[in-house]
Amino acid sequence: MDNQLVKAIDHCSLIVADTRKALEFYTGILALELDESRPDLGYPGAWLRVGNSQIHLLEVDNPDSVENRP
User: Fold this and answer.
1) Does residue 57 sit in helix, strand or coil?
2) Cα 7 from chain centroid (whole Å)
3) What pLDDT score does 1 carry?
4) Residue 16, domain extent
5) Which of 17, 21, 40, 70 lies 20 to 30 Å (CA to CA) from residue 4?
6) Count of structural domains, the chain
7) Are 50 and 35 in contact, with CB atoms under 8 Å apart?
8) What is 3-49 written as a DSSP string?
9) Cα-Cα-Cα-Cα dihedral of 43, 17, 26, 70, to 10°?
10) What is the model's pLDDT at position 68?
């Protein structure tokens, strides 16, 4: 019997100060693939593929604000 409650993670969102610099790290150093399908969400960011999952980079001015946040 499998007691594991979580079978997969679709995506993980990370708040970043600078999307461009974060992309240099994730695509340049970790060699993750940029997912170009990210729509305009009203703030800078990027989606990266990690196997069947994604990392979502969110560049928001005030991480404590709930305005324009997913």
Assistant:
1) strand
2) 20
3) 60
4) 11-58
5) 70
6) 1
7) no
8) --S-----EEEEE-S-HHHHHIIIIIIS-PEEETT----SS-EEEEE
9) -40
10) 64
Token duo for residue 50? 């990690």
pTM attached to this predicted model: 0.80
CB atoms closer than 10 angstroms to residue 32? 19
> Is the Cα torsion angle 31, 23, 8, 39 positive or negative in sign?
negative
CATH of the domain at 16: 3.10.180.10
pLDDT tens-digit profile of 16-70?
Answer: 999 999 999 999 999 999 999 999 999 999 999 999 999 999 998 766 666 666 6
Distance CA 70, CA 47 (A): 14
